[in-house]
């Protein structure tokens, strides 16, 4: 166990905060000192299922923010949580702005037949982004067909097709640029665009606090922060 000392403004003495890498020890400690506890999982897809099971063994709910998690894992977790009557929130994004962007895109898709996703990122890691993939999957699930005029084009300048319904994504990578995602829709005589920018990881905090407050009352698995907005 490692202990870090943090000096907070207005406090005479620094806080001694332990940092542990043993989930069993952490879960046991929380369950003994708190009437209700929540484990927040920011790890990796391969460890999520075991982490949630271990937390549940100590009576702890889980908030999972692992964007790359497979749907098979979510399904297995849902079955486990149902049997254990244990709450779990799996949130592909904790950004409230990102969730609102996705909901706006779904609403717009019923009125427009052409759509393109344009995003910018400061580094080329994991492109297209999880946000762009989620938006494309949401639109694909609606059973529409987009961009019919050039749906079969293989011109690389037209971007990458995500899903099976012709949704395309274009990504600009420039060091120093802010992370941004814009969904453009067009119809006869008009273009409708919705955009979401993030400037720091602080954008996740309001959604995380909301998730923690809501998961305490759950006795099953819920997928997506939008269920609570």
Automatic annotation (TrEMBL):
GO biological process, one term: lysine biosynthetic process via diaminopimelate
Xref: InterPro entries: DapB_C, DHDPR_bac, NAD(P)-bd_dom_sf
GO cellular component, one term: chloroplast stroma
Residue ranges of domain Dihydrodipicolinate reductase C-terminal in the record: 98-229
GO molecular function, one term: 4-hydroxy-tetrahydrodipicolinate reductase
Protein name: Dihydrodipicolinate reductase C-terminal domain-containing protein
Natural source organism: Zingiber officinale
């Amino acid at each position: 166990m490692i202990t870090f000392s943090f000096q907070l403004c207005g406090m005479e003495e620094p806080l001694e905060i332990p940092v542990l890498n043993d989930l069993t020890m952490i879960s046991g400690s929380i369950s003994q000192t708190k009437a209700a506890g929540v484990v927040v999982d920011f790890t990796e897809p391969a460890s999520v299922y075991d982490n949630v099971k271990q937390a549940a063994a100590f009576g702890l709910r889980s908030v999972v923010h692992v964007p790359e998690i497979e749907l098979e894992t979510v399904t297995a977790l849902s079955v486990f949580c149902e049997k254990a009557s244990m709450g779990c929130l799996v949130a592909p994004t904790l950004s409230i702005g990102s969730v609102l962007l996705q909901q706006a895109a779904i609403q717009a898709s019923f009125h427009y037949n052409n759509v393109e996703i344009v995003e910018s990122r400061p580094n080329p890691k994991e492109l297209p982004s999880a946000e762009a993939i989620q938006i494309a999957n949401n639109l694909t699930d609606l059973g529409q067909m987009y961009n019919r005029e050039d749906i079969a084009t293989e011109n690389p300048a037209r971007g990458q097709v995500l899903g099976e319904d012709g949704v395309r994504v274009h990504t600009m990578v420039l060091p120093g640029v802010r992370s941004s995602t814009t969904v453009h829709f067009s119809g006869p005589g008009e273009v409708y665009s919705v955009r979401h920018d993030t400037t720091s990881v602080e954008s996740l905090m309001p959604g995380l606090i909301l998730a923690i407050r809501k998961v305490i009352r759950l006795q099953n698995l819920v997928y997506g922060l939008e269920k609570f907005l």
